[in-house]
Amino acid sequence: MRRNLYSFKLRLDPGLHRYVIETEGAKSPAHSVEVVKRPFVEKAVALLDYPDYTGMKSERIEDPQYLMAVEGTRITFEGKVLNADSLFAEYPGGRRPVRKGSDEFKFSFRLKEGGKLRFLAFRKGLKTYCAGDVFLDAVKDEPPYVAILEPRGEFNLGEDMRVPIMGYLEDDFGLKEARGIRIFEKDTLRFTVKRYEGGALLDTFSFIMDFSKVLLLPGDEIEFYLEGIDSKGQRTLSSPLIIRVPTMEEIYAEAERASAQGEKTAGQLREKASELKKKMEEMERLLKEEKNIDWSKKEELKRLLESQKETIKELEYKLSELDQLMEKIASSPSLSPEILEKIQEVRQLFEEVMTEEMREALKKLEEALNKLNPREIQKALSELKLNQEMMMENLERMSNLLKRFKDCLLYTSD
Fold first, then answer.
1. Which phi-psi region, left, alpha or beta, contains residue 376 (left: φ > 0; alpha: ψ -120 to 50)?
2. Tell me, what's the pLDDT at 249?
3. Which residues contact 351 (CB under 8 A, 6 or more apart)?
4. Helix or strand or coil: residue 246?
C-alpha cells in the first residue's frame, strides 16, 4: 500500500484544541492537543546571610543574575512562579522541591561551591527550565598566613637565656588568635601570644621568650612554632624555629671565627685610614702651592673633603660591623671572665678610633673651605691631621688586641 507523508505547523493560543485531518473520501479520528503557557519566575529576591565570623551584614538583592558570597553563606530565595503545577530548585550540590502557596515560593540553602541556580517547572506533565539562571560564585575562606620574621631558622641562646620573637599574621576575613607552640623533648607547651577582636586582617607583633627557669644543657634544642587562628577557627603553623643551647666547643669555635673576622676587618680599617692620610696630604700640597684659593682650587678641595667624608663613613660602618660581632660573642653563655674582659677592651677601643673630635675637625674644615680662608683651612687641616694620627694609633692597638684575644681563645679552648 502506498503511503503519503506530510507535515504542517499550527500557531495555537493557550487552551484545549481538537482537530481532524480530512482528504478526499477520508477523515481521521478526532485528536486533541492542549497548549499551556511556559512557566516563569518573576520578582525573585535573594537574601544573603553571611557566616557570623565574617562580621558582614546581611544583603537583599532584587532580581539576581550573579551572586558572589563566602562559602557557608545562607542564601534564601523568595519569588513568584506563574503557570507551574510544581517547582524544583537545582543548585550546586543539591536539588529540592520548592514549596509554594498560591504562586509564591521560598527556600534556603548553604553555599558550598560555585555553579548555577536553575528552576525546573512542571505543568500538566511537561517539564521545562525557567528562563534566567542565577550564577553563583563561592569565595573560599583561606586559612591564615603566619610567619616568624625574626629570628629565622636557628637561634643560639645567649647568657640571658631570652629569645626576642617578631611574628606576622594575616587572614582574608579576620584574625582570632596568635599562639606559640614550644616543643622540648616529649613536652609540648602551647600559650597565647595575642588575641584579636574587631576583625583585624593583619598584624606584626613582638614578644620575648625567657628560658632562664627552664633546665637546659649544652646541646639541647627546642622546636618553636607560631600558630595563627582565624575567626572561622582555621589554623596554620609557621615554619619552625630551632632554639639551641650551644656547646662549649661551638661557642669557642664561633668566637675564633669572629676574632679572625675581626683581624681581617682591622686590616681593612687600616687601609681606609691610610687612604684618608693620603687625601689629607694632597690637600696640604694644594694649599702650599697657592696662597690664594680660586674657585677651581676650592672645588678640588671640596672633592677631596667629600672623599674624606665617604672614607670615614666606611670606617664607621666597618667598626659597627665589628662591634656587633663582639657583642654576639659576649652574649654567649659560659665564656670565661678573661675572654669577656678582652671583648670589653676591644669594644671600648672602637669608641676611641672614631672620636667626636674627628667629626668636629671635619666640620671645621668644611666651614673654612666655604669661607675660602687659607689660614682657617690650614688650622682645620692640622686639627684633622692630629686626630687622624691618633686614629691610626688606636687602629694599631685594636689590631694587636684582637690578636691577643684570638690567642686567649685558643689557650682557653685547649
1. alpha
2. 78
3. none
4. coil
